[in-house]
Each structure stands twice: as structure tokens, then as C-alpha cells.
Specification:
136 residues, alpha+beta, Muramoyl-pentapeptide Carboxypeptidase, domain 2, six-stranded mixed β-sheet, 27% helix, binds zinc ion
Length: 136
């Protein structure tokens, strides 16, 4: 990888190759460092059916930069990943879960407590909610 070291992942050998390629490509276009905070460690708590232990997901923080705002990160991330989550503490979740033909990408944002996270699928309803949410 161009922008990440193997040591930034719990077990690089078990990470999905497509996710790693997309992460590097996303990082190149974003032009801002990303700090990986969680990858495929089985010991970290995630939601049931999490993509993390399967090696399909990373959580990260985008190093603050005045040239890059949250709207831009959302749009760019949805171009590169099959699922994108954003938490109020500014952690991002990016994953390359396999999608069936016709299945939409998944995106969500919410408070850090899992019970407060709302899930929105792509489509006009979800996108409207997302746009309202990221305005504030
Ligand atoms: Zn995650």
C-alpha cells in the first residue's frame, strides 16, 4: 500500500484486498492523512454481523484539514466504499462488504452509542435524511 503500513492493521493478511486498494485510492484523492483506529481485531466490540472481523472494514479518523469538510468526505467515501458510517465523535467506518446485484450501498451516521445509530440506505429518502443530518 502507498499510504498505509501493514502494522496499522490488526492482521493485514486477513484484510480484504479490495478494501485495502480502495482505501489507498480514497486516501490519494482525499490528500489528507487517515488514522486507522480499528480494523479486523476480533477482540474489539462491533455490531453483530460486523464486517470488521471478516476483514472488510476499517474505522478511522480523518486528520483535520481546513480544505476537507465533512460533506466532501461523505461524497468521496460513497464513491469508493460499499458502506460508510460516520459518528458524532468524527470517526468514520468504511467497508467493502459484498453487495448483491441491485443492492444499494449502506450509509449511516449517529451518536457513538450503538442504540442511537440510525441506518439509512441509499435512495432519495435516505439521501434526504443524510443531507439534513450533515447540514447541522
Ligand atoms: Zn467500523
Amino acid at each position: 500500500m502507498k499510504y498505509f503500513n501493514d502494522s496499522e492493521f490488526y492482521n493485514i493478511k486477513e484484510m480484504n484486498g479490495i478494501l485495502l486498494a480502495q482505501l489507498d485510492a480514497f486516501r490519494e484523492v482525499l490528500s489528507v492523512p487517515l488514522i486507522i483506529t480499528s480494523s479486523n481485531s476480533p477482540s474489539q466490540t462491533h455490531t453483530p454481523n460486523s464486517m470488521h472481523p471478516k476483514g472488510f472494514a476499517v474505522d478511522c479518523v480523518v486528520v483535520p484539514n481546513k480544505e476537507v469538510n465533512t460533506h466532501y468526505i461523505w461524497l468521496l467515501a460513497l464513491c469508493y466504499f460499499n458502506a460508510v458510517g460516520y459518528y458524532s465523535d468524527e470517526y468514520w467506518h468504511f467497508d467493502m462488504r459484498p453487495l448483491s446485484p441491485g443492492q444499494p450501498k449502506l450509509f449511516w451516521y449517529g451518536l457513538n452509542q450503538p442504540e442511537n445509530i440510525e441506518y439509512f440506505y441509499s435512495g432519495s429518502h435516505g439521501l434526504n435524511i443524510l443531507i439534513q443530518g450533515i447540514k447541522t
